[in-house]
Amino acid sequence: MSALAAGLAPALAAANGLEWSRIFELFHFAIYAALLAGIVCPLIGCFLLLRRTGFHGVLLPQLGATGVALGFAILPWWIEHVGLGGLTLEQAQADPHAMMNWHIPWAALCTFGGLVWLLLAGSRDGRETGRVAAAFAIASAATLLLAQASPFGAEFVAEMLRGEILAVGVHEFETLAVAYGLVLVLFVVWHRDFLLVSYDRETARVLGKRVFAIEALLFALVGVAISVGVMIVGPLVLFGLLVLPPLWARRYARTMRGYYLASVGFGLASVALGVWASFALDWPLGAAVVAAGALLGLPGLALRARERSLA
User: Fold this and answer.
1) How far apart are CA 32 and CA 24, in angstroms?
2) Helices marked H in the chain — which ranges?
3) How far is Cα 172 from Cα 167, in angstroms, rounded to an integer?
4) Strand, coil or helix: 296
5) 3-state SS string over 220-252?
6) pLDDT tens for residues 213-269?
7) Per-residue pLDDT at 119
8) 147 and 154 in contact (C-beta within 8 Å)?
9) What CA–CA distance (Å, rounded) separates 202 from 66?
10) What is the average per-residue pLDDT within 271-276?
């Protein structure tokens, strides 16, 4: 992604003077990827909040980023001792397809590892928030230290953490579309069971539901969405879209269907406003999307404050 970003630098420098049709022509894959994340991530975030595990939406993308950095740290040793399709280190780093296929498994390893740890640790002792905060701090430090082991890795991870996603190409978008399309289809098919086991596991058992299998599928969808998304749209976008849209949507939704639709609406609005701000103000697209998502929540917060003052 870094090499592609360097090639797009002249276009980025002139972006504010371009017409929107030209901007879309240059960066449509990045915009498509952000819009797709704006649909899928808020739906996943709904269940994280329903299960009172909203902090996982912050920790898991950071663990995915740690996996990407781990991949960079291991890559030189792996190419020397195991091999990567006959590529040299320089060839692998210059090949976006090879890098995508290499890093996603490492991101998945850390993301799913974090999910398993969170499930095994549980929340019965009331210390889950502290554990999540500690894990986030450790993962953040590990990401930077592992990336520093490779000069190319340090540059890539720095761009990823800043939310520089305009260099997303066709291969990255196709990978994201396949993964998120699968997640969306399974969400539509299983969302009632996900809702039941998230609200009341005992009732689900009485009704004959296979609670463990349903929860395993839900966590698998969370892991896939994050491990693929962190490599393509970055952890910053995932943070914002997993947490903010579902949080704001709770203010307006009266039914679960309304909650899903409102969350997706906030997600898409965050992306649309973020895309505009990114080019109008020369902001990183990922950071602009999160800033837009935060801005969209202000009316709801103002209404809540007004209601409390009148109560």
Assistant:
1) 10
2) 2-13, 20-50, 56-81, 89-94, 96-121, 128-148, 151-162, 170-199, 201-206, 211-232, 234-249, 256-281, 285-296, 298-310
3) 9
4) helix
5) HHHHHHHHHHHHHCHHHHHHHHHHHHHHHHCCC
6) 998 899 999 999 999 999 899 999 999 999 999 999 998 888 999 999 999 999 999
7) 81
8) yes
9) 36
10) 95
In whole angstroms, what is the distance from residue 284 CA to residue 286 CA? 6
pLDDT digits (tens, 9 = 90+) for 154-207: 888 888 888 788 888 898 999 999 999 999 999 999 999 999 988 888 888 888
What is the longest distance spanned by two Cα atoms in the chain? Answer: 70
Q: What is the pTM of this model?
A: 0.86
Name the amino acid, one letter, at 304.
Answer: R
If pLDDT is split at 50, 70 and 90, which confidence band does 53 have?
A: confident
Rg (CA), the chain: 20
Tell me the three state secondary structure of residue 150. coil
Q: Which residues contact 16 (CB under 8 A, 6 or more apart)?
A: 279, 280, 282
Cβ 245 vs Cβ 292: under 8 Å: no
Domains of the chain from N-terminus onward: 18-303 (1.10.3470.10)
